[in-house]
Protein backbone atom coordinates (compact mmCIF):
# COMPACT_ATOMS: atom_id res chain seq x y z
CA UNK A 1 0.00 0.00 0.00
CA UNK A 2 1.51 3.36 -1.01
CA UNK A 3 2.08 6.04 1.62
CA UNK A 4 1.89 8.99 -0.79
CA UNK A 5 0.25 9.88 -4.09
CA UNK A 6 1.83 12.33 -6.48
CA UNK A 7 -0.21 15.37 -7.54
CA UNK A 8 1.80 17.47 -9.97
CA UNK A 9 5.04 18.40 -8.21
CA UNK A 10 3.78 17.45 -4.76
CA UNK A 11 3.26 14.24 -2.83
CA UNK A 12 0.22 14.03 -0.57
CA UNK A 13 -0.10 11.40 2.14
CA UNK A 14 -2.78 8.78 1.49
CA UNK A 15 -2.11 6.47 4.45
CA UNK A 16 -1.47 6.66 8.18
CA UNK A 17 2.33 6.18 7.93
CA UNK A 18 2.53 8.90 5.27
CA UNK A 19 0.50 11.27 7.43
CA UNK A 20 2.69 10.56 10.48
CA UNK A 21 5.90 11.20 8.51
CA UNK A 22 4.48 14.43 7.04
CA UNK A 23 3.21 15.74 10.38
CA UNK A 24 6.50 14.86 12.06
CA UNK A 25 8.49 16.76 9.44
CA UNK A 26 6.18 19.77 9.64
CA UNK A 27 6.26 19.77 13.46
CA UNK A 28 10.06 19.70 13.37
CA UNK A 29 10.15 22.61 10.89
CA UNK A 30 7.79 24.70 13.00
CA UNK A 31 9.76 23.96 16.17
CA UNK A 32 13.05 24.93 14.50
CA UNK A 33 11.53 28.12 13.11
CA UNK A 34 10.16 29.18 16.50
CA UNK A 35 13.40 28.39 18.34
CA UNK A 36 15.57 30.29 15.87
CA UNK A 37 13.16 33.19 15.40
CA UNK A 38 13.07 33.73 19.15
CA UNK A 39 16.75 34.72 19.12
CA UNK A 40 16.91 36.46 15.74
CA UNK A 41 17.18 40.19 15.25
CA UNK A 42 15.98 40.35 11.67
CA UNK A 43 14.26 38.38 8.95
CA UNK A 44 17.64 37.57 7.43
CA UNK A 45 18.88 36.12 10.72
CA UNK A 46 15.83 33.88 10.83
CA UNK A 47 16.20 32.72 7.22
CA UNK A 48 19.91 31.99 7.60
CA UNK A 49 19.19 30.10 10.81
CA UNK A 50 16.34 27.88 9.60
CA UNK A 51 17.74 27.10 6.14
CA UNK A 52 20.21 24.38 7.27
CA UNK A 53 17.41 22.55 9.09
CA UNK A 54 14.27 23.02 7.01
CA UNK A 55 15.66 22.38 3.51
CA UNK A 56 17.25 18.99 4.40
CA UNK A 57 14.08 17.99 6.25
CA UNK A 58 11.89 18.77 3.25
CA UNK A 59 14.33 17.00 0.92
CA UNK A 60 14.23 13.93 3.15
CA UNK A 61 10.43 14.06 3.19
CA UNK A 62 10.40 14.27 -0.61
CA UNK A 63 12.80 11.32 -0.84
CA UNK A 64 10.61 9.21 1.47
CA UNK A 65 7.50 10.23 -0.45
CA UNK A 66 9.10 9.34 -3.77
CA UNK A 67 10.21 5.93 -2.50
CA UNK A 68 6.84 5.06 -0.94
CA UNK A 69 4.46 6.47 -3.55
CA UNK A 70 2.60 4.36 -6.05
CA UNK A 71 4.55 3.60 -9.18
CA UNK A 72 3.32 4.97 -12.48
CA UNK A 73 3.55 2.56 -15.37
CA UNK A 74 5.15 3.85 -18.55
CA UNK A 75 2.69 4.31 -21.39
CA UNK A 76 3.69 2.98 -24.79
What does this structure look like?
The chain is mostly helical. It has one domain (4-68). Helices cover 64% and strands 11% of the residues. The chain contains 2 helices and 2 strands; from the N terminus they run ββαα. α1 (16-38) packs antiparallel against α2 (43-68). It is elongated, with a radius of gyration of 16 Å.
Low-confidence regions: none
- Ends distance: 25 Å
Report the biggest beta sheet as strand number plus sense, adding barrel if it closes.
2 strands, antiparallel
Structural class: mainly alpha
Topology:
Layout: E1 4-7, E2 10-13, H1 16-38, H2 43-68
Antiparallel strand pairs: 1-2
Helix pairs in contact: 1-2
Short synopsis of the structure:
The model has no long low-confidence stretch (mean pLDDT 90). Helices cover 64% and strands 11% of the residues.
Please tag this protein with its features.
76 residues, mainly alpha, two-stranded antiparallel ribbon, 2 strands
Amino acid sequence: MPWFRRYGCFHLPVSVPGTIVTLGALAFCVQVFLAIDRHSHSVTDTLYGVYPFIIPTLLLLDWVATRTSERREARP
